[in-house]
Design goal:
The protein is α+β, with helices and mostly antiparallel strands. The protein contains 3 helices and 2 strands, in the order ααββα. The chain starts with a helix and ends with a helix. 7% of the residues are buried.
Length: 99
């Protein structure tokens, strides 16, 4: 892959990341983090993007679990469901705003 192609791919991935990541890390009313805090499931949310030299990228998300959640698989499942539900919601909102 040429350096120009790799640069184009990396710029595209960074643009996508910059559009999605802030939505997942917002603090305040209606946010994923606020929901997780209200349910006493988590204390923090962060995102990251790892890009390698070949243009591949890995979007990462970390959730700092509340201590009571760490050894309870049912509560961990609740966190995962909330995360995917919020991602689905942001995709719906973004699609509706484009239309």
């Amino acid at each position: 892959m040429s350096p120009k192609t790799t640069t184009h791919i990396v710029c595209h991935l960074l643009t996508r990341f910059l559009l999605v990541a802030p939505c997942l890390c917002i603090q305040g009313k209606g946010s994923l983090l606020q929901y997780l805090k209200d349910e006493q499931l988590a204390e923090g949310v962060s995102t990251g993007l790892e890009v390698d030299a070949r243009g591949f990228a890995l979007f990462t998300m970390s959730v700092s679990l509340n201590p009571r959640v760490k050894n309870n698989s049912a509560l961990v499942d609740d966190v995962v469901q909330a995360l995917y539900g919020y991602i689905h919601l942001t995709r719906q909102v973004r699609t509706q705003s484009v239309l």
